[in-house]
Design goal:
The structure holds three protein chains of three kinds.
Chain A lengths: L19 H8 L3 H18 L3 E2 L8 E2 L3 E8 L1 H25 L4 H4 L5 H5 L21 E10 L2 E8 L6 H14 L1 H6 L8 H11 L11 E4 L8 H11 L2 E3 L4 E4 L2 E4 L6 E2 L2 E4 L3 H4 L15 H6 L4 E3 L10 H4 L2 H9 L6 E2 L3 E2 L3 H9 L4 E5 L9 E2 L5 H13 L4 E5 L5 E6 L2 E10 L1 E4 L3 E3 L4 E5 L13 E8 L3
Parallel strand pairs in A: 3-23, 5-13, 6-7, 6-11, 11-12
Antiparallel strand pairs in A: 1-2, 4-5, 4-20, 8-9, 9-10, 14-17, 15-16, 15-17, 18-19, 19-22, 20-21, 22-23
Helix pairs in contact in A: 2-6, 3-13
Chain B lengths: L1 E12 L3 E11 L6 E9 L7 E4 L5 E7 L6 E11 L5 E2 L22 H5 L11 H15 L1 E2 L10 H7 L1 E2 L1 H14 L4 E8 L7 E10 L3 E5 L11 E7 L8 E7 L3 E12 L2
Parallel strand pairs in B: 8-9
Antiparallel strand pairs in B: 1-6, 1-15, 2-5, 2-14, 3-6, 4-5, 7-12, 10-11, 10-13, 11-12
Chain C lengths: L2 H32 L4 H14 L3 H7 L5 H9 L8 H14 L6 H16 L10 H22 L4 H29 L9 H13 L3 H8 L6 H9 L8 H19 L4 H14 L3 H7 L1 H22 L4
Helix pairs in contact in C: 1-2, 1-4, 1-5, 1-7, 1-8, 5-6, 6-7, 8-9, 8-12, 8-15, 12-13, 13-15
The chains are: A alpha+beta, B alpha+beta, C mainly alpha.
Chain lengths: 471, 267, 315
């Protein structure tokens, strides 16, 4: 029996139902066809300019994220169960943010220590008392979920700030439909291409009270040098909204406008892909040249909606993560449907002692890190690496949390020597506005290196199309 | 005491200003011991100003203008009546949970040498008021009042290390240490008429005393605010409570000067 | 439409046009360097290439000596040179990238692949022998870009702004080449009519790919200063002439005023310039000084560019 749950073959007990047609298809696929398909896929992505920037590598810094042609498949029933958990969690995260930026009942109730919130870098006190449209703070959440068994899903991270990757989800599907149309004729795969329409509906539904008529929406990008610029341009185009840089927007007499070739045009909703700190030099970092001076004041006055709201990072902060099951229970009155990964907070002496004793088995992460940088994966690290990390951990224990290494599920993936199991995670995209909309599936990231558990694109991860089969 | 205040901020630039946006925290509130009889702010773009309350309940004006070349003034003026209640602030609504004022900012975060100061005091938890008076005295003693030794972005820890500073620095040190000891504390801006110096824009701290409420502490002058103080705005630190904070395009070589005139009359 | 989008369309086209013009100037420089002549002649010819491309100042700041290798590298690959072909293609592509949703896929792929391929090329692999082939490749790619643009873009504001950038650059380049060659390279009256003189006028025509069309148009194989000047300034048949450029500029501006329902100062400037070119008379231009005429034109052209940027809120 395999140590890992394989989404096609289980733990050795044989083919799982959702993959029946995939297996047949793979059997009939010759090495030449595979080779050609992989080449075609790369050509499609390159032509589209679907690249991400790699920091610190000079001119040739735009790269493709590798794509694997074997899809990752969920049965309708599996997905329904998972969706319920996702929706519950997303409702709770928004309720949590609303509470934190108003009466802070959860602190008064003693369910989260005051210190974890008040002096958290991701807490934005300027948001206190502000009432965003429909009470929604995080309109777009990308929850990272890993699977360890047939019915075992764990949330690894709640991305509540400006989650990216949705363009890969859409382009992966485009590529699959182009390369293997017959697969889609054989079975009904829930469509994802309406995501931009759903996103636009969500953005329209949270127009500020001051907006009369059809809201004007823009997407605010840091510009072409941002690693996710392709996605910004792609989404703006698909939604039919202007792609703005900070300089394209300005505040005049208390309203937000964009600079056009004619008269300035009033803007109602800003889907911003700029971090909180750079959003408005008048309120946040004064040296920011990417943001729009005064945009936060206009937001505060209810004349524009910022998506996502500033300060939503609190809900996906690694120091808060371990409290989220309590958060779900506190605001929904229900037992959480999705599990967390057990987490040791190194700030607590007992936990730290345990972590230091078990470094070789654990994953240790920086509380404020992201993208897979600055972490220790105990089981795949050398003795020297572990000892070097131990010193870092001891010097600044508050900065770390630790988790067991999870037995991430695998999906068959084309490697140099042929089909082989590789570890995956899942990032479904969840939209909150007038209602909650969940894309069927999401982005599956795959660790292409044999045995690797790190799926981040910056660390050599790739992507797969993700299917939810319809009944 | 009735105070008639005129606060002028004068701006001039070497080259023309294409666009200017400014946030003004220049309007005082009335509360139990302070009554604003009349108040007005004038500035370019004021007629179209956007008004709102910020997170801490301050009255904010956001103004934008294209002043072009030439100098301009922002003037805040009015009449305020103040009673001496030993610095206790009552009847003022600051719409955030008190705990938010435990948040340290870059300007207030205490350094280790600063924290050492707390060793000699009694417990803030058991007796907040004596603790805060001790803290005010210690802060006053640790930083000699000397203008020109610090600037707008100096942190409390930096001022503490050099032992010199102005009211902003005293307030930052006091606030940082009060928060460290678990006492919510906030930064306050306003005006002060002292007997021996000319009236000026001023800053001090307020700290939360159980059973008493928020109380002002002016470590620079080693006393709690009296009827010579007019309270305008509060926040977490100086940067977030600046009377005028702005951004501009064009307009190199900014020259700014501030003038405060106050007339006092007993009721 | 965002002012920045308009600006990016304008500058993308302008930089592609500049890259193409630079490739032509380099071709001419290279051609002359192969011709028999005095050593001094060689040196002057590379200098004239630097002058015609308005890159002499920057070059002199960077290099003490005038060598073919340095000039070619400076004009082709040097990112410190704001007009090198590499800078032009990179700037054009970055402008395009920031507004790629405002252009057709053909236009985007044209500029994107040109840049991607150019960026791969190592300067040391472009030997002297390979230079003509390489320059021709650049010209072809620039023309393919323009073809994609003309063939696929909707005739709305995006298109008009790209045309303005294209033809303001072309007019500027043609005027500069004519002025530099005429004013700086032919100072001595004794040279007029000499072999050198004829050769110089031939170069001017080559720099704008017009040596054949000149012969065809005037049915004359001798390059006459008067006719060459007329060809490049006043003839509407000649696609790189000032008049031709201004006809396109006026058409594009007219398109914008129809679309937006408003005319501005830039419309007046462009109409006046076109009117003076239509009524222009070569005798009079030579009488009052060709150099003065071209200098005035270059200034007015720059003013138009400035006025368009302000009117339509380029960043």
């Amino acid at each position: 029996m395999s140590r890992y749950f394989d989404e096609m073959n289980g733990k050795g007990e044989g083919l799982r139902e959702p993959y029946a047609r995939i297996q047949n298809w793979l059997k009939g696929l010759g090495p030449d066809q595979v080779h050609k398909a992989l080449g075609d896929a790369e050509a499609i992505f390159r032509k589209q300019g679907i690249t991400f920037a790699v920091y610190g590598s000079g001119e040739a810094s735009e790269r493709l994220i590798p794509f694997d042609i074997v899809p990752r498949v969920f049965a309708a029933q599996e997905w329904r169960r998972l969706s319920l958990g996702i929706e519950q969690r997303v409702r709770a995260l928004n309720a949590f943010l609303h509470d934190i930026y108003h009466r802070q009942e959860i602190i008064r109730a003693g369910r989260i220590p005051r210190e974890a919130i008040i002096n958290n870098a991701a807490f934005v006190p300027e948001m206190m008392g502000l009432d965003p449209a429909r009470g929604i703070y995080s309109h777009i959440i990308g929850i990272d979920i890993v699977r360890t068994g047939d019915n075992d899903f764990h949330v690894l991270e709640d991305n509540c700030r400006t989650p990216s990757g949705v363009s890969y989800m859409l382009e992966d599907r485009e590529a699959m439909m182009y390369l293997f149309p017959q697969l889609f004729a054989q079975q009904r795969v829930a469509p994802v291409e309406h995501y931009p329409v759903m996103l636009r509906s969500t953005l329209e539904s949270v127009a500020p009270p001051a907006c009369k008529g059809e809201p004007v929406i823009v997407l605010l990008t840091p510009g072409i040098h941002n690693s996710a610029f392709f996605e910004h341009a792609f989404l703006a185009d698909e939604m039919g909204v202007e792609l703005c840089e900070g300089n394209d927007l300005f505040v005049s007499d208390g309203w937000l406008y964009m600079r056009t070739t004619q008269e300035p045009k009033k803007v109602d909703v800003v889907y911003r892909r700029i971090d909180d700190a750079y959003l408005d030099p008048l309120t946040f970092r004064p040296d920011s040249a990417l943001g729009v001076p005064g945009i936060f004041d206009v937001y505060r006055a209810g004349r524009v909606t910022l998506v996502n709201a500033p300060g939503t990072g609190l809900a996906d902060d690694k120091a808060i993560y371990s409290y989220i099951p309590d958060v779900v229970e506190f605001y929904t009155g229900e037992r959480p449907l999705l599990k967390n990964v057990p987490t040791w907070r190194c700030a607590e002496a007992d936990s730290l002692a345990y972590v230091l004793d078990h470094l070789a088995e654990l994953v240790v992460k920086e509380v404020h890190g992201s993208g897979g940088y600055g972490m220790l994966v105990g089981p795949t690290s050398s003795k020297a690496e572990i000892e070097a990390f131990r010193a870092k951990l001891k010097a600044n224990a508050r900065n770390y949390i630790a988790q067991p290494t999870l037995a991430l599920s695998t999906v068959p993936t084309f490697a140099a020597q042929g089909l082989a199991p590789r570890h995956v995670d899942l990032r479904p995209f969840v939209l909150s506005g007038d209602k909650i909309r969940i894309t069927p599936g999401g982005l599956t990231r795959v660790a292409l290196k044999e045995g690797s558990l790190v799926v981040n694109s910056s660390q050599g991860g790739g992507t797969k199309d993700t299917w939810v089969l319809e009944d | 005491m009735q105070l008639t205040i005129k606060h002028i901020t004068h701006y001039a630039y070497d080259t023309a200003l294409d666009y200017s946006i400014q946030r003004l925290l220049l309007t005082p509130h009335s509360f139990a011991s302070q009554s604003v009889k009349s108040w007005q702010v004038s500035a370019p773009g004021m007629a179209q100003a956007m008004q709102y309350r910020d997170a801490f309940g301050n009255k904010v004006h956001l103004i934008t203008s294209n002043p072009g070349s030439g100098a301009y003034d922002i003037v805040a003026e009015g009449v305020v009546e103040v009673r001496d209640v030993a610095g206790v602030v009552q009847g003022l609504s600051v719409p955030v949970p008190d705990a938010v004022f435990l948040r340290q900012t870059a300007a207030t975060l205490p350094s280790e040498p600063m924290e050492a100061l707390l060793q000699g005091f009694g417990s803030a938890a058991r007796a907040a008021l004596p603790f805060l008076h001790e803290l005010m005295a210690a802060t006053h003693g640790a930083i000699a009042y000397e203008t020109g030794t610090t600037h707008a972005h100096t942190t409390g820890a930096e001022a503490f290390a050099q032992g010199r500073g102005v009211c902003q620095d005293h307030a930052h040190v006091f606030i940082g240490l009060a928060r460290k000891a678990g006492v919510p504390a906030r930064y306050v801006t306003g005006y002060l008429v002292a007997d021996d110096v000319s009236p000026a824009a001023h800053a001090w701290a307020e700290a939360l005393v159980p059973d008493l409420g928020w109380v002002g502490f002016d470590a620079a002058n080693l006393k709690c605010p009296t009827d010579h103080y007019v309270r305008v705005a509060c926040g977490l630190d100086a940067a977030g409570t600046a009377p005028v904070r702005g951004c501009r395009r064009g307009g190199t070589g900014e020259h700014m000067s501030v003038e405060v005139r106050v007339e006092m009359s007993q009721q | 439409m965002l002012g920045r989008t308009a600006g990016s369309q304008f500058w993308m086209s302008r930089y592609v046009e500049r890259a193409e013009n630079m490739a032509r100037l380099l071709e001419v420089g290279y051609r002359i360097s192969l011709m028999p002549g005095t050593i001094e002649g060689h040196r002057d010819d590379w200098r004239s290439t630097l002058l015609s491309s308005a890159c002499a100042y920057g070059y002199d700041r960077k290099y003490k000596e005038l060598t073919a290798e340095n000039v070619i590298n400076y004009l082709l690959f040097d990112l410190d040179n704001p007009s090198s072909i590499k800078t032009c293609l990179m700037t054009a592509r970055n402008n395009g990238r920031s507004v790629r949703t405002a252009m057709t896929r053909d236009v985007w792929e044209s500029i994107n692949s040109t840049w991607n391929e150019f960026a791969q090329i190592k300067p040391e692999t472009v030997s002297s022998a390979r230079l003509p082939e390489f320059l021709e490749w650049i010209r072809q790619r620039c023309m393919a870009f323009r073809g994609a643009l003309l063939g696929t873009m909707l005739r709305t504001d995006n298109y008009y702004f790209s045309q303005l950038g294209n033809f303001i650059e072309r007019a500027d380049s043609t005027a500069r080449i004519l002025d530099v060659k005429y004013y700086i390279l032919l100072p001595r009256p004794s040279d007029v009519g000499s072999d050198l003189d004829v050769q110089q006028w031939g170069q001017i025509l080559r720099s704008v790919s017009a040596h054949r069309s000149y012969r065809w148009f005037y049915r004359d194989s001798r390059y006459k200063p008067w006719l060459v000047s007329e060809f490049l300034i006043l003839r509407e048949e000649m696609p790189r002439s000032l008049r031709f450029s201004y006809q396109w500029i006026n058409t594009a501006l007219q398109g914008l005023s129809n679309l937006y329902g408003k005319s501005y100062e830039c419309h007046t400037i462009a109409e006046q310039t076109l009117a003076s070119l239509k009524q222009g008379d070569m005798d009079e231009i030579f009488r009052n000084g060709l150099h003065e005429f071209l200098q005035d034109f270059i200034t007015a052209n720059g003013k138009l560019s400035q006025s368009i940027a302000t009117t339509y809120h380029f960043p």
